[in-house]
Amino acid sequence: MTTPAPFDSASLRYLHAQHLAAIAPDDVWLIDGLWGVQHVGVLGGPPKTTKTWLALDIAVSVASATPCIGRFPCSRSGPVLLFAAEDSEEMLRHRIDALCASRGLSLPDIPLYVITEPTLRLDTPSYQQKLSQTLAGVKPALLVLDPFVRLHQQNENDAGAVSAILGYLRELQRRHLTAILVVHHTRKNGSSTSPGASLRGSSDFYAWGDDMLYLRRHDEHLVLTIEHRASKSPEPLTLRLVDGNTPHLQVVANLPKQRAGIDEAVLSALSSSPLPLTRTALRSLLGVRNLDLGVALDHLERGGRIQRTPSGWRPA
């Protein structure tokens, strides 16, 4: 094997691949199957789908080494830094207190820190520098930014502007060895069965994320879809927000029977058709709601039972 000349100040730094930092198999996840160590990504969903509740649940999980939503164990805990632009300090404290109480935790005992500045502009060099210095001081395992729309003054459809902000966040992740979760809105009526394609604004969000979480309403419940860049994605989960003195998200044991029936109806329709069927054709044929059909198609595709083609859906 030919050995290249050592790099100097005029060249880029490089290493042989064997000298790259390695992650031990048991050190891949912050939260098992949900969010990786030093991963960046998006928690997306339409308005009023409990995105902030889930973001805070993840934050408390990492800070306290307790399972997220009672389902995903925390493998590697550490300090968490949070900026919540849409909640007052009182409301934020109420939510965090409730999550701690639901787990039997004492808030003073967990390293959960909140940025209390009235604004944070990730498209402004002065704020970028302040955030970097804050990370250097806190050394968080996870940074949570909620929501993206309040963190800049750019056009979210401007790919160049969005790419610059996401590039800055990736730089923060690498420099400070922290995971970063950004809460972002999806379109209210996303037509695609791929949740990532429904994220509002530039498609750079979907390309950027290592881990992607999506919340959607399904009747009285919420459906959580999980995508990973380098790991197998689990089946979607059905959640509900538990009311009472300690509100928190909870996994519903079984998916609604109605959805299972729609799954089978979709499979039957596709199997009976000699040609692929579009989503519009399936909806007309089955007489189901667009949202219900989207959830079914997503579930069946992830399970390897159907395939999407340029002309529509067909059995796998």
CATH topology of the largest domain: Rossmann fold
Mean pLDDT: 88
User: Strand tally, please?
Assistant: 13
Q: Major sheet, described briefly?
A: 9 strands, mixed
- How many domain regions? 2
How much is the radius of gyration in Å? 21 Å
Structure description:
The model has no long low-confidence stretch (mean pLDDT 88). With 316 residues, the protein is an alpha/beta fold. The protein has two domains: 27-251, 3-Layer(aba) Sandwich (Rossmann fold), CATH 3.40.50; 257-315, Arc Repressor Mutant, subunit A. The protein has a nine-stranded mixed beta sheet, with helices on both faces. A two-stranded antiparallel ribbon has the order 1-2. A two-stranded antiparallel ribbon has the order 12-13. The longest helix is centred in the middle third of the chain and has 18 residues, at 159-176. The chain is built from eight helices and 13 strands.
Question: Would you kindly provide a brief summary of this structure?
Answer:
The chain has 316 residues and is α/β, with parallel strands linked by helices. The chain has helices at 51-64, 89-103, 125-138, 159-176, 204-208, 257-272, 279-286, 290-302; strands spanning 29-31, 35-36, 40-45, 80-84, 112-114, 142-146, 179-185, 211-218, 221-228, 237-242, 248-251, 306-309, 312-315. It starts with 28 loop residues before the first strand and ends with a strand.
Structural topology:
Blueprint: E1 29-31, E2 35-36, E3 40-45, H1 51-64, E4 80-84, H2 89-103, E5 112-114, H3 125-138, E6 142-146, H4 159-176, E7 179-185, H5 204-208, E8 211-218, E9 221-228, E10 237-242, E11 248-251, H6 257-272, H7 279-286, H8 290-302, E12 306-309, E13 312-315
Parallel strand pairs: 3-7, 3-8, 4-5, 4-6, 6-7
Antiparallel strand pairs: 1-2, 8-9, 9-10, 10-11, 12-13
